[in-house]
Amino acid sequence: MADKNDLFQFDDFSGTESLQNNNPPQDNDLAGDEASSIRETLESEMSVDFSEERNESSAQEDSSSKGQEESPSGGYDDDAIQHLDWNEHIRRRPGMYIGKLGDGSHAEDGIYVLIKEVVDNSIDEFNMGAGKRIDINITEEGEVTVRDYGRGIPLGKVREVASEINTGGKFDDKNFKKSVGLNGVGLKAVNALSTYCRVASTRDGKTVEVDFVKGNVVNHTSPTDTKEPNGTMVKFLPDNSLFRDYRFRQEFVETMVNNYTYLNAGLQIFLNGRKYLSRHGLLDLLKENMTSEPLYPIIHLQGEDIEVVLTHTDQYGEEYYSFVNGQHTTQGGTHLSAFKEHVSRTIKEFSGKGYEYSDIRNGMVAAVSVRIQEPVFESQTKTKLGSKEIAPGSTVTVNKFIGDFIKKELDDYLHKNPDIAEKMLKKIASSEKERKAMAGVAKLAREKAKKVSLHNRKLRDCRIHYNDAFKQNSKNEDQREASSIFITEGDSASGTITKVRNAQTQAVFSLRGKPLNSFGMTQEVVYKNDEFNLLQAALNIEDGIDGLRYNKVIIATDADVDGMHIRLLVITFFLMFFPDLVKKGHVYILQTPLFRVRNKNSTRRSKGRKQRKAKTDENGEKDTYYCYSDEEREAAIAKFGSNAEITRFKGLGEINDVEFAEFIGPDMRLDPVTLKKDDTPDKLLEFYMGKNTMERQNFIIDNLVIEDDSEI
Predict the structure, then answer these.
(1) CB neighbours of 436 closer than 8 A, spacing ≥ 6?
(2) Which residues contact 468 (CB under 8 A, 6 or more apart)?
(3) Range list of β-strands (E), 130-228
(4) Are 219 and 42 in contact (CB under 8 A)?
(5) Is residue 158 within 8 Å of residue 222, measured between CB atoms?
(6) What is the per-residue pLDDT across 684-711, written as a single tens digit (0 to 9) for each?
């Protein structure tokens, strides 16, 4: 049987290749009063010139490229071999160490990985019984300080731990058992990718501080007396030349902190002075993240090195949260696969009926956390577990460890709580009945989708997919995270995007008019409606999002009333049948400009050219501004005065190819579609997408806004 990924043919790759941002990086100055103080101290006392430091990297690159130019054409000689210092290698290939860079607008961006790498070390201290509190402070300027109250780094090794690659105390289990930081890389990556970094350790009344600039030591103190309690402090400012115009988002940091407390009951984390604490572990996590009411009380099972919670809701699909040694494995791994397998098997055996695993897991919301020795992850970002055994050389596999626990504990729980077991089996029987009722329709729909997919003109696929096997590019970067699909309305918009997209990582799916309002319908509509059926097949999510083909599902509609309606209809479809797609942060809204304001004089000079890019003069002033709001439009008009020429974009098809290339390139503006318990999605969908009630009619009448375009 053919793989679902083979159903779609690469089509129309005539578009431009990968869009590159050729603007030279702008380094940032040290921020904040304390940061300025540190800088002045380092420059005056240690004779450190930050301007020279900033140019060091580019100078090395110029020297390197110059040497290569002098080599014979195509020559591979001694001059072609380069040696990079540890910090320079990290700065040139950050993707190997922290995944993507980003600016903080997405939860997986590198600045959050930097925080995680530092906090992971503090968590390891807590798990060893040293220190029950961690302080995290983030300033408006983006400076991060993490202070724990563990044992502290040995004072004679502070510099080495922070700046010598593959150096640390976790290469065996003598000092750290079942820790998450194993490779001796994390803190070094933070150091190298920061404009400056200070690491201080306090042990038994003595403290040592080491200051770094982009990984280079600029100050190293001798042990001095202190009254501070034991522990480690790391202060760093991410390098703005790498993380362009970055900004920490409170909600992403809070989610990270909450997860740490859920997985480490009793640990107190203070984020900018606010206390975070969990007393019930994963039970608190599930209660916080569930957006639908559970059909029965959440089952909570705990054992040595394992914790499990699970329940069912009326929502479609499955929803899982998995963790290893306190690390959130967003892409699952061997532990999650084992959990899903053995939960399904145990419930099936308990029921005494031949339920299919898909029926048992439909509507399930669960979380699993395990602790193993020296876990093996697929990458430094640790989002997917690859370990087969629970410890090196152990005969007990991860699968058996989890399976034995689930088999005993869950089976015992269901026998002891027949009321909960009855409600669970009732839900499973309902899922089976619904699946069988639409089995014929689903089979025909799959066959139709397979035939259409061979020459699917709705889909312009890309070459790299989120569910592909890991393949590094020439820069040793994992491009799967960049895979995305634009869901557009009509052929006009999809044609424009197709011409200018990056065919390596950007796919396009074209809708035909307005899709069906799926609110209140059963899953049968997914198979009966051609648009939904083909979209489901394109995303490869019929059996859940484990096989999702694109990391980002981007809804790209016009910025008018019809476009907004289509956007709501697509989001409703995802929330009704694939809520986990939204909860896991895969759905986004593409922001395109509402207005173009340009200088009439520049327009006249370029008359006759059908398409042109915005230009910048020698003073850095642009001749064209793309405005995403009325405020931006008014600011642009003020710059050009009477020479301002204003165009309002009412549809994506009105934007020419050259302009659109900028809107979906490296600086693409995306708004994530988020879903939390407080959002009450059921009530929102009922109000906005349900039957046309008087309540909604009155709401529209009371909030109606009439725009007068004549003022533009």
Answers:
(1) none
(2) 5, 480
(3) 133-138, 144-148, 194-203, 206-213, 216-220, 224-225
(4) yes
(5) no
(6) 787 778 776 778 788 888 877 766 555 5
Select 282-437's CATH number: 3.30.230.10, 3.20.20.70, 1.20.1070.10, 3.40.50.2300. 3.30.230.10
- Report the pLDDT value the prediction gives residue 623, as an integer from 0 to 100: 77
User: Does residue 101 sit in helix, strand or coil?
Assistant: coil
* Residues 6 or more apart in contact with residue 525 via CB below 8 angstroms: 516, 518, 532
Helix, coil or strand: residue 333? strand
List the beta strands (DSSP E) in 316-456.
319-324, 327-328, 364-370
Q: In a 3-state reduction of DSSP, which class is residue 76?
A: coil
Residue that the structure tokens 């592909």 belong to: 468
Token pair 């608190």 is found at 284
DSSP per residue over 292-312, as a string? S--SSPPEEEEETTEEEEEEE
pLDDT at residue 452, as a whole number: 54
Q: Percentage of the chain with pLDDT > 70?
A: 77
Instruction: Tell me yes or no: is domain 439-592+670-711 CATH 3.40.50.670.
Output: yes
For the chain, give every domain's residue range. Answer: 96-276, 282-437, 439-592+670-711, 595-648
Residue type, 690: G
Listed in sequence order, the residues at least 6 apart from 182 whose beta carbon sits closer than 8 Å to its beta carbon are 170, 171, 374, 375
Q: What are phi and psi of 207, to 5 degrees?
A: -135, 150
CA 434 to chain centroid, in Å, comes to: 34
Cα 465 to its chain centre, rounded Å, is: 16
Residue bearing tokens 């050009």: 640
The structure tokens listed for 62 are: 């110029």
Contacts for 400 with CB less than 8 Å, ≥ 6 apart:
none
User: Which 8-state DSSP code applies to residue 637?
Assistant: H
What span, in angstroms and rounded, lies between the C-alpha atoms of 153 and 163?
A: 13
pLDDT above 80 (res 102):
yes
Burial of 20 (0-12, 13-18, 19+ CB in 10 A): exposed
Specify the pLDDT at position 603: 58
> Which CATH number fits the domain 96-276, given the four candidates 3.90.79.10, 3.40.630.30, 3.40.50.920, 3.30.565.10?
3.30.565.10
Contact residues for 629 (Cβ-Cβ < 8 A; gap 6+): 594
Report the alpha-carbon distance of residue 204 to residue 650 in Å, rounded: 67
Write out the two tokens for 227.
């009254």
Please give the structure tokens belonging to residue 1: 């049987």
Tell me the Cα Rg of the chain: 28
Q: Is 63 helix (H, G, I), strand (E, B) or coil?
A: helix
Starting at the edge strand found earlier in the chain, the sheet holding 364-370 runs 299-303, 306-312, 364-370, 319-324, 327-328
When pLDDT is cut at 50, 70 and 90, the band that residue 23 belongs to is very low
469-489 pLDDT per residue, tens: 766 555 556 788 889 999 988
Q: Which two structure tokens, joined as six digits, stand for 695?
A: 């309540």
* Residue 555: Cβ within 10 Å count: 25
